[in-house]
Specification:
Elements (H helix, E strand, L loop, with lengths): L4 H9 L5 H13 L7 H14 L4 H4 L4 H34 L8 H15 L3 H11 L4 H8 L3 H17 L8
Helix pairs in contact: 2-3, 2-5, 3-5, 8-9
């Protein structure tokens, strides 16, 4: 008898975590309607969340460990969905831009692009890294996770970068 895809995924995590945690992760993926072809990647993300999760009865008040872990997994699944949606929209935008026929590289746009590159080059390596991750479509929370920094720290860096762009007159979003 051949194993189903879900059984194969399940067996990868048996022994790594308590079975109830694995079952909870599978149930949450199913509840949120995550497409089966994305379960492998989603389970890798959820396994990291499960591994990092530490139940603290004092902070939990009356909530059970399962309830709190369920909320942690739900937030991670929502974050993955938002990230996938941003990537999809960005790819759609790239597709639309690829079909444009007019010359979009006007001299003033080239000058602005050069000015932006110079401004980013003067940033600290950490802030350059944050810029790069944001340009790749990551959100503030994802950048924080990738750089192992709190999202508020990332927000402060982004605000500094934004203020610098405004100071130099590079703020088309405010027009």
């Amino acid at each position: 008898m051949t194993k189903t895809y879900i059984e194969e995924l399940y067996e990868r995590y048996v022994g790594a975590f308590d079975e109830w945690k694995i079952n909870l992760a599978f149930a949450r993926l199913k509840r949120f309607g995550v497409p089966l072809e994305r379960w492998d990647d989603a389970l890798q993300e959820l396994s990291i969340a499960i591994h990092r999760f530490r139940f603290d009865p004092v902070k939990a008040h009356a909530a059970s460990e399962e309830t709190i872990l369920c909320r942690v997994l739900d937030r991670r699944i929502k974050m993955l969905a938002r990230s996938a949606d941003r990537r999809r929209k960005m790819m759609d935008r790239f597709g639309q831009l690829a079909h444009r026929t007019e010359d979009t590289h006007l001299p003033e746009e080239k000058a602005v692009a050069k000015e932006v590159r110079q401004l980013v080059a003067r940033l600290s390596p950490r802030r350059q890294q944050i810029c790069r991750l944001l340009m790749e479509g990551d959100g503030v929370a994802e950048v924080g996770d990738k750089l192992d920094l709190h999202h508020e720290t990332i927000r402060r860096h982004v605000q500094f970068i934004r203020d610098l762009f405004v100071e130099k007159g590079l703020h088309p979003w405010s027009d």
